[in-house]
Specification:
With 96 residues, this protein is an all-alpha fold. The chain is built from three helices and no strands.
C-alpha cells in the first residue's frame, strides 16, 4: 500500500498583524515580529517545518508583546490627558 502524503499547511505567519503593530503600536517589537514572520514561509518551503513553527511562535510572541505595550501606552496617555484636562479646568476656576 502506498501512503498518501497529506499536504501540510504552513504555520500562521503573523505578518499582517506584525505590520499593524509596527504602524500603530510599538515599532521595535513590531519589527521583531515582521522579521520572524518573514522566516515562516521560507523555512516551511525549504522543508524545515520545526523551524517554521518556531518562527511563527516567535512572530506571535513579539507581535503580542508590541500590541499589549501599545494598548497600555494608549491607556496611560488617555488617563494623563484626562488628569491634565481636569486639573486645568479646576485650576482655572480657582483663579476667578
Amino acid at each position: 500500500m502506498e501512503e498518501q502524503m497529506t499536504p501540510q499547511k504552513p504555520p500562521k505567519t503573523w505578518l499582517v498583524e506584525s505590520i499593524l503593530v509596527t504602524l500603530f503600536c510599538c515599532l521595535p517589537f513590531g519589527i521583531a515580529g515582521i522579521v520572524n514572520a518573514a522566516k515562516v514561509e521560507s523555512r516551511f518551503n525549504s522543508g524545515d517545518v520545526a523551524g517554521a513553527q518556531q518562527s511563527s511562535a516567535e512572530a506571535k510572541k513579539w507581535t503580542m508583546i508590541g500590541l499589549w505595550i501599545g494598548v497600555a501606552a494608549y491607556i496611560i496617555y488617555i488617563i494623563l490627558v484626562f488628569i491634565v484636562g481636569v486639573g486645568g479646568i479646576l485650576g482655572s476656576r480657582g483663579s476667578l
